[in-house]
Amino acid sequence: MKRVLALLLSALMLAGCFACTSGSNEAVAQTEAESTEDATVTAEAQTTSAGEKRIVNVFTKKREWDWKTIEARYEAYNPEVDLVVDATDSTTYYDLLKGYLASGDLPDVIQITSGSTMDVWKEYLVPLDGLEALNTMPADSTAEFMADGKYYGVPLFAELHGVIYNMDYLNKVGWTTTPTTLDEFIQLNEDLIAAGLPTGICPWSSAGSILGHMTASVFSSHDDPYAYMNEIIEGNVDLTTDEQWNALYDYLDATLKYGNADALVTDSTTERNALYTEEYAWYAHDGSWLTPQIKANNPELEDHIALGVYPFFNDASKNKIGNSLQGMSVMNTAHTEDAKNFVNWLLGTDDGCDVLANVCNVVLLKDGFELTVENVGALGVQGMNYVANGQAYNNFRGFPTEIQSALMAAIQKYLAGTSTRVESLAEIQALFESCK
Amino acid sequence: MKAIGGTLSREKRNLKTLNIVFLVLMVLNLFPFFLVLMNSFKSSFEIAKSILNFPEHIGLDNYIKAWKTLEFPKAFLNTLIVTVIGNAGLIVFGTMTGYWITRSRTHLFNKLFFWLLLASMAVPFEALMVPMMKVTRVAHLNGSLWGLGVSYWGLGAAMVVFLTSGAVKSIPYELEEAARIDGCTRFATFWRVVFPLLRNTVATFTVLNVFWLWNDYLMPQLMLGRTSELYTIQLAMRSLFLEYYAMWDVALAALILSLMPILIFFFIGQRYMVSGIVTGAIKG
Amino acid sequence: MPQSRTAQRKRKMLAFIGNEALFLGVILLCFIVIKIIPFLSSLIYSFTDWNGVSGEVTFTGLENFKSMFKDKQFWYSMWFTAKYSLATLILTNLLGFFAGYFLTKPLRARNLIRAGFYLPNVLGGLVLGFIWRFIFLKIIPALGKVTGFPLFNLVWLGTPETAFWALVIVHVWSSMGFYMLLYVAGFMSIPGDCLESARIDGASAWKSLIKVTIPLMMPTFTRCLFLSITTSFRIYNLNLALTEGGPFLSSEAVTMNIYRTAFTENRMGYGSAKSLVLTLIVIVITLIQVWATSRKEVEF
């Protein structure tokens, strides 16, 4: 017994020493880097002391990007900086960031969405006015990341979303373009049914995509989406008769009528698997983020996949796709200058943009940067064409965080049939009004 | 004579049927595992088509990919270190605490400590996550495997103390008295007399704790998230779950890889979990 | 000269404190650092409107608790969790108890079967959810078409009732093996002569089970029930992976509600207040349970 105990304790101590050294090495490296950084943070000095590299910590939720290549290319461009990338899960991204904030360990570069999220984190972000990259992008994209007259983020990429169509099926029933109105969408389904072909699949188990993405048209069709929301909060808008909300629900009705039977329990994974295996003609909600997986699973799909507008109205001019714009921000840490330089390189120079677009298949916003089917895929190219023709609404980012989950639940109750349209819209209205 | 023989063989038949019934139940019970194993050999496109089909060919591609992507040897070593440190501390210090608290329950401080420990089991981890990060930072526990292991001493103590306390209560005090009379210190008494009798309980909570520490994700993410050299298997595996897509083919293979070491540990350990308690000592 | 009484008492005190430090020191320190201080911190936050990020923290007194009173979803999730806890408590303990009972008999494949029943405990969170989602959404409907049982033809995970029972089923599947092992240990700790004397007195297997085994196993019951209640009240990962609280927040257990409040809704202060209330409620429940079962513990 004593022997076992002795063994245990010595294993403990051994492991402890092992771990301790690896842990303390990290701590030593970081403090050295920080003290070097403090000395050079104001001046744009190009030398380091004792050959130690300066560190820039990037915290990202884009695990799928080829960060090793990004690191290699940036460190070749700027050999004095060591890029350290922490790539994590997107659903808990901001929760983890809060944990890092508490432990005093903020990263230098983060991803940000405008609106409520940027509002919450603003106090820890560095204004990026004057950054070269901002000048290379369209004004309505950069304007999203403005707050209190300053830019707190740089547009990182656009994710275009709408209804996805497998044109092989559409061609079989004589459709060469995607439906642009609600009546056309219904007609397409009738044609598919008459021909004995499958219709579509709806990933409605996650109402988050409905709320976050599909309400783009509801809010962004107004000149000032935030003012519109405030009107709802003040009680000046009756959602049950509102044209935009009802059009959204009309589309939801159509998807339930013609789509797969268990839409409420269909999650995105199932829907995407069905896409790669080409099981359905339309996919009620998805976007250009699929490109890497399409290229990996079923590259031929690129030839006959199409992004269509959300057919909410019967007036084609009111139906557009959605644009989920996301940004990159710099946090107020000891490495702000180096961090800003990195962001500028990534988004403002051809070198950085080349890695993002050609290696990571990202839909960039840099003016004049060529986006092709090879780099951003068919969905990306089609999406950007819609944007160029003014046929995309930006996602609305202003939902008060306290009611988001309840809003999603209200929509899901409608989809499940446990509340009528009027009840559902009234519930949504009441939720907004509770934020007064 | 005949009657006795008759009952005996009927009992044997009952046992045999029970044996078979339970074996069947067990196999049914393990169906989900079978699914995991079967799918770990399929390509991601095959999995997308259907989870129920047999793999088109049984190859080790996924496992090799998993090994490389996870940097398995490094991740395995990190996880092993954390698990060993965490468990060693809980076994050594946790049982001591459980023992002492049970034997000197009359002192107010100990009573309070015991009830606080139990009460702490009511609080979910997520509720304390954020303030905990501040404290662990101050205590220099962040960013090292050692720190993570020690944090688990704090997190896992309650259950260990609770189970140990229950086991110690059923150990007759006379055994310890005998040792004390012979001149042993309480410390020596604990290790010489009591601990061997706790083997069963120790095995029980150790198996549980090993699985917990091995599979835990949130705590390592918060404490080790910035230093990729120290990633545990769970952290390394998260790189397979992307924002819009999960690499299920590699992920399932990675899961099997990650479970193998502790499954082996479990098969060895579960014998001790239920091996005979020293009823002899109690009777004698 | 023999030492004076006070000196002796002092020595005893010192020895006692020395032992206290030795035996409790490490765990006490860890416990205070990892649990007590964060809990106190969380306690303080529950009287503020902190959003979890801002450097500014404003005291709002009892505002959070007043809001909690009116928070229907919170109390719904509390009730949901209580129902869930009761259902899993009964099922896991019943199944664990009987499995344990049969698996202490001299069966040939006993060790293998025990290991096989414990194995599900190994899977956690994400994969558990993925596998069982697949089972509920694809396999069960397929079985339903083949056999026609109405049970299989329900819309699993699509209605509040099925979501609830799905969670219970997966939890029971996952943890029954652990309780089975605890009960096996309990069974084996029953002194053989008690059962012997019962058999000699002519008691049937069932009678001796009720009158002798169960009363002697009360400590095991106390332990198992306590663990069952505390672990089921804290359910989060499975909840997230299997149902995500859906459909429409109908299967949201209380930890998920607290997490959502504290993190997703950026209301750390309010979330801390909820957490405090949850803790108090669970403490009361387990106190009652431990008191009730401890009273029934017997010794022979």
Which helices and strands occur, and which strands form pairs?
The complex is a heterotrimer of chains A (about 425), B (about 280) and C (about 300).
Chain A (H helix, E strand, L loop, with lengths): L1 H39 L13 E7 L6 H11 L3 E7 L5 H10 L6 E4 L3 H6 L10 H4 L3 H5 L2 E2 L2 E2 L2 E13 H6 L9 H13 L5 E2 L5 H8 L1 H5 L4 H10 L8 H16 L9 H9 L5 E6 L3 H7 L7 E4 L12 E10 L5 H13 L1 H10 L13 H16 L3 E3 L9 H13 L4 H13 L3
Parallel strand pairs in A: 1-2, 1-3, 7-8, 10-11
Antiparallel strand pairs in A: 3-10, 4-5, 6-8, 6-9, 6-10
Helix pairs in contact in A: 2-16, 8-12, 9-18, 11-19, 15-16, 18-19
Chain B lengths: L1 H28 L1 H9 L4 H6 L11 H10 L1 H32 L4 H13 L4 H14 L6 H25 L3 H9 L4 H12 L1 H17 L2 H7 L8 H6 L9 H26 L5 H5 L1
Helix pairs in contact in B: 4-5, 4-14, 5-8, 5-11, 6-8, 8-11, 9-10, 11-14
Chain C lengths: L4 H41 L17 H8 L1 H31 L7 H9 L6 H23 L12 H29 L3 H9 L4 H12 L1 H16 L3 H6 L11 H11 L3 H28 L5
Helix pairs in contact in C: 1-12, 2-12, 3-6, 3-9, 3-11, 4-6, 6-9, 7-8, 9-12, 11-12
Helix/strand structural class of chain B: mainly alpha
SSE order of chain C, as H and E? HHHHHHHHHHHH
- Helix segment count of chain C? 12
Unreliable runs of chain B: 276-284
Q: Count the beta strands of chain C.
A: 0
The number of helical segments of chain B is 15
Main pleated-sheet profile of chain B: none
Biggest chain contact: B-C, 89 and 87 residues
Query: Strand portion of chain C, in percent?
Result: under 5%
**CA gyration radius of chain B, whole angstroms:** 24 Å
Shape of chain C: flat
Distance between the termini of chain C: 47 Å
Can you give keywords for this protein?
heterotrimer, A: 436 residues, alpha/beta, nine-stranded mixed beta sheet, two-stranded antiparallel sheet, 19 helices, 14% strand, globular, disordered N terminus, B: 284 residues, mainly alpha, 15 helices, flat
